[in-house]
Write a structure and sequence with these properties.
Length: 517
């Protein structure tokens, strides 16, 4: 993979702003069609929230903890990622470790190890035997809806779901996951246990769109969970290699200062060094408010469109801590991923988070799967909790306080670890904003509420001909596989035809719309 510090030419077919997995996937697929593609990234590494960083000979993932479906599946639920890597010719450039557990859930009075596959239902049914039939019905519905979501064409108008042969997507379009849980289950503790993964969406089941919840959960259950060997930067770099192998270009430590609009359509971009790049297509993997209001502005973007963007709700941000310890965590029966909750009621937990409290914690120990991440014979631990951007007046003044809150909570998962920490580095919502320029440090783009999920989420086509959006702000939503899917959809809209692996087309017969702009 070749990284550049200057653009080689002054004209490209496609310019992609930001190298998050959505934009990078779109860029690589479009380069394979023979288009000239330039990706412009302001950071010194590719990947957005999927990038990793090194401290003291230790490698930390900035945000991604695990992914679903890194290997081909025979469940009938297709694994998109390995087919994409194979299609790009880079399947041999990253490897994955399969994990035994999806997660460990720790609630007051109950800790449960939750696996994937058929055992997922069995574990819940053993704990709540009277709910077994309802569990089966809910899992069957979730799987069916997940498969509909996979074959939903990009930018399909919500009113056309039923006509497109997607009846469940139509029926559950405005339903929350919590309300669907209520249709099938009675025990509030079972509902809470099924809702353990809600921090991956940013809102609890009572506020999360079911058409986003079902694919997220069933991808993990049906396809298994994996950690990328050497960190998820290797997955990012593999897709980046697919781009450069096809003739595309990567430009790091460079910022797009302006998107040019000429005669009502995209004309190119201006870089921070003053270079003007002509392009008829621009794909923004960046915050759409920044893209439209700052990089284009009025009159290029209609004021009504800008008002509609500003009326949407971004997701919460997060406080994180990255640490290393000399404790032998392998001997302590620690899971790769643990979710700790002070309360059974996820709505109470969420409201406390909104107030700036820390009633829940996600604990990730990637070195249990990949010891090579640390060259110092240490285990690495990542802590994270959701928080709003405005939880405090000054994150600089409160950063160390939140690190302490996270570490105190960690003691409930790994007692005594605070006496064995030899490195720690924290991050706050301000950190998220600074590195990504995401509105209010949002970690999932727009909030995954029903009115901002599924086909109601922001479409890929922008308000100017030739402008497209990709990544977690757009359909289908946040999460690694989801933003990769977003990149595939964006590439197909730009190209006006299928750009992905034929094997995937046979498994999931996507319906497509032609390109516009």
């Amino acid at each position: 993979m070749t990284i550049q510090i200057d653009a080689k030419r002054d004209s490209y077919d496609v310019v992609v702003i930001g190298s998050g997995l959505g934009g990078l996937t779109a860029a690589a697929l479009l380069a394979q069609t023979g288009r000239s593609v330039l990706v412009v990234e302001r950071h010194n590494r590719l990947g957005g929230y999927a990038h990793s960083f090194s401290r003291k000979r230790q490698v930390f993932d900035s945000a991604v903890h695990l992914i679903a479906g890194a290997e081909l599946s025979d469940t009938g639920h297709p694994s998109m990622l390995p087919l994409l890597l194979d299609s790009l010719g880079v399947a041999d450039r990253c490897a994955f470790h399969r994990l035994d557990l999806l997660y460990r859930a720790a609630f007051p009075g109950l800790t449960v190890d939750v696996p994937t596959g058929p055992d997922f239902l069995d574990v819940h049914a053993r704990l709540f035997p009277r709910e077994k039939l309802g569990l089966r019905r809910l899992q069957r519905l979730s799987t069916q809806l997940a498969r509909e979501v996979m074959r939903t064409p990009p930018d399909l108008p919500p009113g056309e779901l039923r006509a497109a042969g997607l009846p469940l997507s139509h029926e559950y379009r405005h339903r929350t996951a919590g309300s669907v849980f209520d249709d099938h289950l009675r025990d509030p503790r079972l509902k809470a246990l099924l809702g353990t993964l809600w921090p991956y969406l940013g809102v609890p089941p009572s506020k999360a769109g079911f058409d986003t919840w079902a694919p997220m959960l069933m991808n993990y259950v049906d396809l298994g969970v994996y950690y990328c060997a050497g960190s998820f930067q290797n997955l990012v770099n593999a897709i980046g290699s697919g781009l450069t192998d096809a003739g595309g270009e990567l430009l790091l430590k460079t910022t797009v200062r302006r998107i040019l609009v000429q005669d009502g359509r995209i004309g190119g971009v201006v870089l921070d060094n003053g270079q003007r790049i002509r392009a008829e297509t621009v794909i923004s993997n960046a915050d759409p408010v920044q893209t439209c209001a700052e990089l284009i502005g009025t009159p290029g973007v209609d004021t009504a469109y800008l008002r509609s963007l500003r009326a949407m709700r971004p997701s919460l941000s997060a406080a994180v801590a990255f640490l290393s310890t000399d404790m032998d965590l392998e001997q302590l029966d620690i899971a790769h991923e643990t979710f700790l909750y002070d309360e059974w009621d996820h709505d109470v937990v969420f409201q406390k988070m909104v107030k700036g409290e820390v009633p829940a914690l996600a604990v990730t120990v990637p070195t249990l799967s990949d010891p090579t991440l640390s060259r110092n014979a240490r285990h690495l631990v990542t802590l994270s909790t959701l928080l709003p951007y405005d939880a405090v007046e000054s994150w600089r003044d409160n950063k160390s306080r939140y690190e302490r809150l996270l570490l105190d909570k960690l003691e409930q998962v790994i007692p005594g670890i605070n006496d064995h920490i030899d490195f720690i580095e924290g991050g706050t919502p301000r950190t998220m904003e600074r590195y990504t320029l995401n509105l209010r440090g949002a970690i999932y783009g727009w909030e995954h509420s029903p009115e901002q999920s599924g086909t109601d989420r922001m479409p890929h086509r922008g308000p100017v001909d030739g402008l497209y959006f990709s990544g977690h702000w757009t359909q289908p939503g946040g999460g690694v596989l989801t933003v990769v899917s977003s990149g595939i959809q964006t590439a197909e809209l730009v190209a006006g035809h299928a750009v992905f692996a034929p094997d995937f087309q046979r498994v999931v017969p996507l319906r497509r719309y032609g390109s516009k702009g």
